[in-house]
């Protein structure tokens, strides 16, 4: 495991204050801007959601850096897919926050669900705004 990942995982229990979403509570995902970026095919929105040294890991592929991450999403189907995130747990502290939940992918033309799975996002404060430091997901 990379040193920065170990460091983050070691500090998470110290830096975070837990709260859970209750059943029926309204969706309040930090990923709403991500959804908007996909809907509007706006690579810049996606790029600005991640810190400069962010990491995305999925399907055995690791992508580092906000610009490379935004490019990866653009090349891998932003024009064909919309995504929706439903958080099931959020833990927030002063400088770190994590969100996990369920995502669903929808075909942009038909609106039909074409995939779903679990996601995990570690947010880090960057100039007083939370941005994504680590993002991973797995399909069901």
Question: In brief, what are we looking at here?
Answer:
This protein has 140 residues and is α+β, with helices and mostly antiparallel strands.
In percent, how much strand structure appears in the residues?
over 45%
- What is the ordering of alpha helices and beta strands? HEHHEEHEEEE
Q: What is the end-to-end distance? A: 25 Å
User: Major sheet, described briefly?
Assistant: 7 strands, mixed
User: Low-confidence parts lasting 5 or more residues at pLDDT below 50?
Assistant: 7-26
Form type:
globular
- Helicity level: 25-40%
Rg over C-alpha atoms, rounded to the nearest angstrom? 15 Å
Secondary-structure-derived class:
alpha+beta
Oligomeric state? single chain
> How many H/I helices?
4
Neighbour order of strands in the largest sheet: 1-4-5-6-7-2-3
Number of strands: 7
| Mean pLDDT figure | 84
